[in-house]
Each structure stands twice: as C-alpha cells, then as structure tokens.
C-alpha cells in the first residue's frame, strides 16, 4: 500500500463510476500483481506434477504461436490456436495466463469473461469484433458457464477472432473438493464453445490453493473496521456492508473497476451472511476487482470467508463463491 499518512476515509457509496468502450478496452491488461509474471517465476508444487507439465505446455504454445505453428508444414504437431487451463482455485492459472500475455508480441488483450461481455454490451457486437480483430492474443480469465446466452455470445466472438488469426487463452475454475469435476468442467467448456472445441488444447492443473496451502488460513475479521481503517495508509474508504450491497446493485459490474480506482484499502462494517443470491453474486464480482487491484479489506462482523451460506456453496454458483472465499482470505490476511 501507499506510504502516505492516513487520511479520512471516503465512502464507496458516494462514487458514481462511468466507463466508456475505449476505457474498457484500455483496461484489458493483466492485474497489477501479475505485471511481472513469467513462466520462470511460476512455482510448481512438486506434489502435483500437472503444474510442471502445464508450464511446459504453455512454453510449447508460446513457441508454436511465435513460429506460426498453426500453419507449419513441419512434421511436429501443430499448435492449436487456443489453450484452456482447467483447474481449481489458487493453482496459478491466472499467473500462467498473464505470463503468456507478457511473452506474446503485438496487440493483445487480457480480461475476465465479464469484462468482455461488458465491452460487447457497451459498444455492440460488431464494433467489439472490430476493436479486438487483429490482436495477436486474447486472454479470458474466469470463463463463465452459468449464463448460456453470454457464453454463446463470447463463443461466437472468439470464433470470429480465431478465424482472423488471433490466438485465444482461457481459464476456468474447478472447486478443489469436487472429485472428478475438473474433467467435467473442461467438457462443459468445450461443449459450450463447440465451434471452437477442436481448436483448444485443454491443460489440466491440479493442486492446492496456494493462498491456503501452508496455513489453512481464514479471512480475518477485525473488532472495529472504522478504527482499523483509520490506521491504514493511502486512500481508504469506509462503508456499511448493507449500504455497499445496495450501491453495487445500482452500478454495472463492468464499472466496479472504476469504483475502486485509486483505493488502497476498504473498510466494511456490519458484515453478515448473505440471504440473497443476487447480492452475493454482485459481491463476488466486486471482490474480483478488489483482488485484481490488491486492495486490502478491513471488515468487522462475520468473517468474510463465512458470508456464503451452505446452500449457496452447494448450489450452481459454488465455483464463484469458492473463488471469492479464496480471494477474501488473501485480501484480509494482513489486516489483523
């Protein structure tokens, strides 16, 4: 965080962010914690050989993409134009995706699934195709499968980009405690993008969440968020949990990145378990942006890794909630 002296916290609910199509396009770069990500800096867990194998597969993809492997007449197997990283939370998929982005030359884009759907929504389908066409690489982190309409929309977009020569890389999450669901997730992905399935190389990455690997950590709840945030440095905010949820309902998730722009730490008072799934899903999208920007969270009340009730964790959006839990643990780990 910033080294400046503590200041009076702002309120997120007072921020009304706006975001144009051009600004959305400019935001399509790796999160700042991955600005230096390389394949060499990825640290495979030796207990899970698939992690080392994934690094080797990504090197092969980069080499093939740089040499025009798709059209190569060599006897060595041609590199497919798409690669899909299938695995659980905290196994380094985003690191590998960012490392790939850094190694590729030319115009390239890196964003989450929701950022690409928001771009299409803001400028229209045909203009979005024209904006992205000609890119050497398009990376999609956290490819979502729970909205068939959006999934088909992005699949159609990717088909047009691949046809024009763009390479595609994507990730999606598998709950670490869901036996056999990793392969099922890959099959889901390929079935939903059936027009692209033959063009994607699926790389399975097993392992433990690195954010919990050594400690089995939990999210930290402070005794008084207002007092705690007062000790934080840089630009800070303080809101009640319920007021923040109400505000998020009036801001499109694509604008959450602007909502937290320039903020070093957020304080939340009165955190409690979710009773409404719509609120929970909006909060997940908000947490994703906090994590991308590495914004610390000081929260009192219910610990943030306990806000999703069992029925939500067992439901159709379990992957999103479990990803959020992992990230909330990371963002609160230094706020005790």
Q: Can you offer a commentary on this structure?
A:
By secondary structure, the protein is α/β, with parallel strands linked by helices. The protein has a five-stranded parallel β-sheet, sandwiched between helices. The chain has a three-stranded parallel β-sheet with strand order 6-7-8. The two termini are 15 Å apart. Strand 3, helix 6 and strand 4 form a beta-alpha-beta unit. It is built from 13 helices and eight strands. It has helices at residues 21-26, 49-66, 93-103, 113-123, 125-132, 148-163, 181-192, 225-229, 241-248, 256-259, 277-293, 310-313, 318-332, and strands spanning 82-87, 108-112, 137-141, 167-173, 200-205, 236-240, 265-271, 296-301. It has two domains: 12-19 and 213-332, no CATH class; 46-205, Rossmann fold.
Quote the CATH topology of the largest domain. Answer: Rossmann fold
Give the count of structural domains. 2
CATH homology superfamily name of the largest domain: P-loop containing nucleotide triphosphate hydrolases
Individual helix count: 13
State the total count of DSSP E strands.
8
- CATH class of the largest domain equals Alpha Beta
Largest sheet: 5 strands, parallel
Spell the H/E element sequence.
HHEHEHHEHEHEHEHHEHEHH
Shape: globular
How helix-rich are the residues, as a percent range?
Answer: 40-55%
Q: Terminal Cα separation, in Å?
A: 15 Å
Name the poorly predicted regions. Answer: 69-76
CATH architecture of the largest domain: 3-Layer(aba) Sandwich
What share of residues are in beta strands?
A: 5-15%
Strand line-up of the largest beta sheet: 2-3-4-1-5
Mean pLDDT: 86
Q: What's the gyration radius in Å?
A: 20 Å
Structural class: alpha/beta
